[in-house]
């Protein structure tokens, strides 16, 4: 299941123990197009190999030789397919939503318990700055329960309510959350459940904030830009869009709003980052809702074409 902090736990573990090894490497599969050769090249690059191998076989031989001579810790994040691991000539730590027969040892990450959920939610909604009144505690506890222990949902809902000192605002958020849960549909569709919770924060955005968020979901994420989209470059693109009058500074303010709401992140290299559950929710909105339907393309196979003229229509170009 997505949104339960597998990546966060893996990164924290990696940072905590990497000093015990001669070399360490953390690879986000989404940034490598998911193919075995790209993953292998990324690993070699992190291990300071300057010359790029000519093919996958050569990459495997170089890795095997390096692993034999050194004590290594290697983490692969968000593995989609078993073949992505099979090419690595050593044992690895991996995170995945799937199960693989070749796993030697498996740890199932469960949803947070109620105490941990409340603590995480409060750290985003109030940041422990003051003691909450009993009325807020009661409503907040109900919101936490509705999030089902999903860390991402707790973070986004907490950020959505951050600084709001009107009890009525919290109660309205709870009612919207309950209505969204009533739309869950398939009880086994965990993605749809978390999207319904995350959607509350999206619905509360201004129109221009929604457009920027959807642009990031569809255009400026790792599976479209494997090397990542720089914040500065994205701001320049948005500011030059002839359909928008906002200047680059205004777009920066809009982006900061999305960051404050825990919908988007900027890493230490200035690259835009978004959780894959938020990305998929945004793409689902573009695919199914009339207002946004077919306005953005991230997969050319989904391109809306007029069969009679082979022309593309209804696309937001940025």
Automatic annotation (TrEMBL):
One Gene Ontology biological process: defense response
Full protein name: NB-ARC domain-containing protein
UniProt keyword annotation of rRNA processing present: no
Alphabetical keyword list: Repeat
InterPro entries documented for this protein: Apaf_helical, Disease_R_plants, NB-ARC, P-loop_NTPase, WH-like_DNA-bd_sf, WH_DNA-bd_sf
Pfam families per record: NB-ARC
Organism, scientific name: Physcomitrium patens
Record GO terms (molecular function): ADP binding
Coiled-coil region list: none
Span of domain NB-ARC: 1-95
């Amino acid at each position: 299941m997505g949104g339960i902090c597998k990546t966060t736990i893996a990164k924290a573990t990696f940072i905590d123990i990497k000093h015990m090894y001669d070399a360490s490497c953390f690879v986000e599969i989404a940034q490598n197009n998911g193919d075995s050769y790209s993953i292998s090249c990324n690993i070699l690059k992190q291990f300071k190999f300057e010359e790029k191998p000519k093919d996958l076989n050569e990459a495997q031989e170089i890795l095997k030789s390096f692993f034999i001579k050194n004590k290594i810790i290697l983490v692969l994040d968000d593995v989609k397919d078993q073949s992505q691991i099979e090419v690595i000539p050593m044992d690895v730590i991996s995170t995945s939503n799937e199960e693989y027969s070749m796993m030697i040892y498996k740890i199932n990450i469960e949803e947070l318990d109620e105490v941990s959920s409340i603590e995480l939610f409060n750290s985003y909604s109030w940041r422990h700055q003051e003691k909450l009144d009993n009325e807020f505690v009661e409503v907040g506890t109900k919101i936490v329960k509705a999030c089902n222990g999903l860390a991402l949902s707790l973070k986004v809902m907490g950020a959505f309510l951050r600084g709001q000192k009107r009890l009525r605002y919290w109660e309205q958020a709870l009612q919207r959350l309950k209505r969204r849960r009533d739309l869950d549909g398939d009880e086994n569709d965990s993605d749809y459940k978390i999207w319904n919770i995350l959607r509350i924060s999206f619905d509360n955005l201004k129109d221009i904030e929604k457009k920027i968020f959807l642009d990031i979901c569809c255009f400026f994420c790792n599976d479209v830009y494997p090397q990542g989209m720089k914040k500065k470059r994205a701001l320049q693109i948005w500011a030059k869009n002839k359909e928008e009058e906002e200047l680059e500074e205004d777009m920066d303010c809009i982006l900061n709003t999305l960051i404050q709401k825990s919908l988007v992140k900027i890493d230490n290299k200035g690259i835009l980052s978004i959780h894959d559950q938020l990305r998929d929710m945004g793409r689902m909105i573009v695919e199914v809702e009339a207002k946004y339907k077919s306005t953005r393309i991230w997969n050319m196979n989904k391109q809306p074409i007029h069969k009679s003229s082979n022309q593309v229509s209804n696309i937001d170009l940025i």
